[in-house]
């Protein structure tokens, strides 16, 4: 049976956003606020990872395209400073379309969909920052995310974008506040639903002035098989004395949550993607036909050099697989890290921070970080195990979980960068599951021979060019 990946809140789930100069052929971007080029290995390598944001932002077919400037979107001067300080120069399509709707008065709910890595975070963070009255020392915006790692990342965007404001922030994630904390006065609180609900219930968070409620990865947050109950608890504790703007964002809104989303955020403005637009073009998808489950391990090890050219994330279905392969690879002299929901909070924070800083290049993990995590140097994602529905829904047969697949591969190819995903298949069943994913996304997944390292390297080089 599939083991379920639980977040720190005990639910099934699966710093910083980047500064990107919109110049052409920008070699390996830096992480937020830090404008020096990082990851010299990448620059030195024969793989030329180049970014041509300027070109993509003038291509009307790109999700990064915009006709407008940030100035035209009606943002406060202090926020414009924050945006430019992060290295953004032009909005992406979702930012251009969503921000005027999000900032209009009276506030209107929003259900916004846009591909992975296209800048949804900035859209909702700027809305929260725009709506806060900094003279009132009370919580005014709540944001929920499915994992502590994502909550921490969102917070880093709030602080970077709000750098020139007086915004006060606080986390609602496990093991962050002292147990006897009595009152949070911060303007913006970012957290996971179980902890947020608990703090509201205990009145550590005073809800009276809350006017914005954001769900990032909203389809996941509303899914009844996952975090739906806790998210609803939070919503039910919001003030009834005045309207609260509800903002739902995700790259995916599968049919089974779409209707519920509209109920959760009534009368919302909607920005939706067509099914064939779900995944971004810049992620080249491959598969490798392994002989059996054990062979997958051998192939992963043979890929090690390629995995460390930039950074890579290896997704497994079970925590114990992640632990097992990372222990084995470590014992064989490879440097890898592993992260999953069974590790304690401090350890999780340390692992993701090391990976973000590029000190670890290969991260073996579970669905816990399948969504939202934004690390620009990640140019390869490996689905050691394909994501399956029964991780979420025990009654489901072993159907592939297409949404989780989209989010997993979306950890690469951020904001127009090139990326590669490789699926390991090892028998008829896994092959058929992959075929279903291929059909659902309408994109070819290309075979790479497992016994021809040169061909593999060659194909990958081309894909990253
Ligand atoms: N207008 C912009 N100009 C340049 N870079 C941007 C811009 N907007 C966002 N970015 C950068 O693009 C990257 C992806 O943004 P973000 O993490 O918000 O994507 P997302 O749409 O939320 O993705 P996901 O669906 O995976 O959560 C981040 O590194 C962010 O800093």
Automatic annotation (TrEMBL):
Comp. bias (Polar residues): 15-26
Gene Ontology molecular functions: ATP binding; hydrolase activity; RNA binding; RNA helicase activity
Chain ranges for the short sequence motif Q motif as given in the UniProt record: 68-96
SUPFAM superfamilies: P-loop containing nucleoside triphosphate hydrolases (SSF52540)
Limits of the DEAD-box RNA helicase Q domain: 68-96
Keywords, comma-separated and alphabetical: ATP-binding, Helicase, Hydrolase, Nucleotide-binding, RNA-binding
SMART domains hit by this protein: DEXDc, HELICc
The protein's Enzyme Commission number: 3.6.4.13
Domain Helicase ATP-binding: 101-271
Gene3D superfamilies hit by this protein: P-loop containing nucleotide triphosphate hydrolases
Enzyme class, broadest EC rank: hydrolase
Segments forming domain Helicase C-terminal: 282-456
Record carries keyword Nucleotide-binding: yes
Domain of life: Eukaryota
Catalytic activity, as annotated: ATP + H2O = ADP + phosphate + H(+)
Matching InterPro entries: DEAD/DEAH_box_helicase_dom (IPR011545), Helicase_ATP-bd (IPR014001), Helicase_C-like (IPR001650), P-loop_NTPase (IPR027417), RNA-helicase_DEAD-box_CS (IPR000629), RNA_helicase_DEAD_Q_motif (IPR014014)
Chain positions covered by the region annotation Disordered: 15-39
Pfam families: DEAD, Helicase_C
Family, as annotated: Belongs to the DEAD box helicase family.
Protein's recorded name: RNA helicase
Organism ancestry: Eukaryota, Fungi, Dikarya, Basidiomycota, Agaricomycotina
């Amino acid at each position: 049976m599939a083991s379920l990946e639980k977040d720190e809140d005990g639910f099934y789930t699966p710093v910083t956003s980047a500064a990107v100069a919109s110049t052409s052929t920008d070699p390996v971007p830096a992480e937020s606020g830090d404008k020096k080029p990082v990851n010299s290995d990448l620059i030195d390598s024969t793989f030329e990872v180049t970014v041509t944001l300027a070109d993509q932002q003038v291509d009307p077919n790109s999700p990064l395209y915009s006709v407008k400037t940030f100035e035209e979107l009606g943002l406060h001067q202090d926020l414009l400073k924050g945006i430019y300080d992060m290295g953004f120069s032009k909005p992406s399509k979702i930012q251009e379309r969503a921000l005027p709707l999000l900032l209009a008065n009276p506030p209107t709910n929003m259900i916004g969909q846009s591909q992975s890595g296209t800048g949804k975070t900035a859209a909702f963070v700027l809305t929260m920052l725009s709506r806060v009255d900094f003279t009132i020392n009370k919580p005014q915006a709540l944001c929920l995310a499915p994992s502590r790692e994502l909550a921490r990342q969102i917070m880093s965007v709030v602080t970077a974008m709000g750098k020139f404001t007086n915004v006060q922030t606080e986390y609602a994630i496990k093991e962050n506040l002292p147990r006897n904390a009595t009152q949070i006065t911060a303007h913006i609180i970012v957290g996971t639903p179980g902890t947020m609900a608990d703090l509201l219930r205990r009145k550590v968070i005073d809800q009276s002035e809350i006017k914005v409620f954001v769900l990032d990865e909203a389809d996941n947050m509303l899914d009844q098989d996952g975090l739906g109950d806790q998210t609803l608890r939070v919503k039910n504790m919001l003030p009834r004395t005045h309207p609260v703007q509800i903002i739902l964002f995700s790259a995916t809104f599968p049919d089974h949550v779409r209707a519920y989303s509209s109920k959760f955020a009534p009368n919302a403005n909607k920005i939706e993607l067509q099914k064939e637009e779900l995944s971004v073009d810049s992620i080249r998808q491959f598969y490798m036909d392994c002989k059996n489950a054990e062979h997958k391990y051998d192939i992963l090890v043979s890929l090690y050099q390629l995995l460390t050219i930039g950074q890579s994330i290896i997704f497994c279905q079970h925590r114990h697989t992640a632990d097992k392969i990372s222990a084995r690879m470590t014992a064989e002299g490879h440097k890898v890290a592993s992260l999953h929901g069974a590790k304690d909070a401090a350890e999780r924070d340390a692992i993701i921070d090391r990976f973000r800083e590029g000190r670890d290049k290969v991260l073996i993990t579970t669905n816990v970080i399948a969504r939202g995590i934004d690390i620009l140097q990640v140019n390869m994602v490996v689905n050691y195990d394909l994501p399956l529905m029964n991780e979420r829904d025990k009654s489901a047969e072993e159907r592939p979980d297409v949404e989780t697949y989209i989010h997993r591969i979306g950890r690469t190819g951020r904001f127009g960068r090139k990326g590669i995903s490789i699926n390991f298949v090892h028998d008829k069943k896994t092959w058929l599951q992959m075929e279903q994913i291929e059909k659902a996304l309408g994109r070819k997944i290309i075979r790479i021979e497992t016994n021809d390292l040169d061909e593999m390297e060659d194909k990958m080089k081309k894909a990253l060019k």
